[in-house]
Amino acid sequence: MVHWVVGTLTLLLVASIKLGCNANSNVILKSFDEMVLECAELMSITPSKLSAMRSGVLVKDTETKCLLRCVGVSGRFWSDYTGLRKEILARYFLPDAADTQHVNRTQICLNELPTLPLDSKLCCNLALESFLCFYYNYGNLRQNRIFVPLDHLQLQHVTARCMEVHQLTKDLLMSMGEDEMDSNGSIHCLVRCIGIKTGIYSDRAGVNMDRIYAQYGDGYCEADFKTNASECIKRQSERTYGNTCKKAYHLLYKCFENVRNVITEYELHDSDEQ
């Protein structure tokens, strides 16, 4: 089965920060240009330099390299530990419909780049070069906002807020077996709450496949991930659930669970931080 946050619920229960009332307040949508402006401010990039960069003049100096790395980290398409998530970066580009070779050209360019360096100081250079493979080969940058996957801490906040809403405690969740979770209405509503607040699910539209892959599909082939998920969702959708929470639980937890022994995972994760 493919990866889903509910399979790692007990990994996400440390935080207890109270969030706003808007059900979708945790969904992040950003354009590439917005992330550039945000990173430029954080890194004190001069207006003249920023203006040149936004006009397409990308000088390969340290400032430019690290700005693009910052954008990649902000947009979740770059990590100093795992490198480029090309399927995420691709969403910021609009290929020409007549250009049937943009994917191949981009991949050839990426294949020519060195492997991820052990020295984190060298990551700025590789982040820029990876971006340039898309910039020169994949298409034009989009102007619209794109879904940005939440990071681990943000997922903690979502889970803690949803647990608070549905009056669930960490100890109670950790003590439950799968059969107990299957029959517990509060757990069902917790899963639905997380799905809604992360933007990957709604009662009306069901599972948003593009968003759920962006959020939880790292390391999986996108085609296989979506094919397996679609088949599972189709099977689960044939059942009658009686309420929205139970339906969300079966579409999400049952189709996107990867970690079975969540208590063991939580204990290992917790001990690593001590």
Folded structure, characterized:
With 274 residues, the chain is mainly alpha-helical. Helix content is 53%, strand content 7%. The chain is built from 14 helices and eight strands. The strands form four sheets. The protein has a two-stranded antiparallel ribbon with strand order 1-6. Helix 1 (32-42) crosses helix 3 (62-74). The longest helix is centred in the last third of the chain and has 16 residues, at 222-237. The protein starts with 27 loop residues before the first strand and ends with a helix. The model is unreliable at 1-23 and 258-274 (pLDDT under 50).
Quick gist of this model?
The protein is mainly α.
Please render the helix and strand layout as text.
Blueprint: E1 28-30, H1 32-42, H2 47-54, H3 62-74, E2 78-79, E3 83-84, H4 86-89, E4 93-94, H5 102-111, H6 123-137, E5 140-141, E6 146-148, H7 152-165, H8 170-175, H9 178-183, H10 185-198, E7 201-202, E8 206-207, H11 209-216, H12 222-237, H13 244-252, H14 262-272
Antiparallel strand pairs: 1-6, 2-3, 4-5, 7-8
User: What order do the strands of the largest sheet run in, or round the barrel if closed?
Assistant: 1-6
N→C terminal distance? 31 Å
Strand residue content: 5-15%
Largest sheet: number of strands, sense, barrel closure: 2 strands, antiparallel
Shape: elongated
Mean of pLDDT: 82
Number of strands: 8
Give helix % range.
40-55%
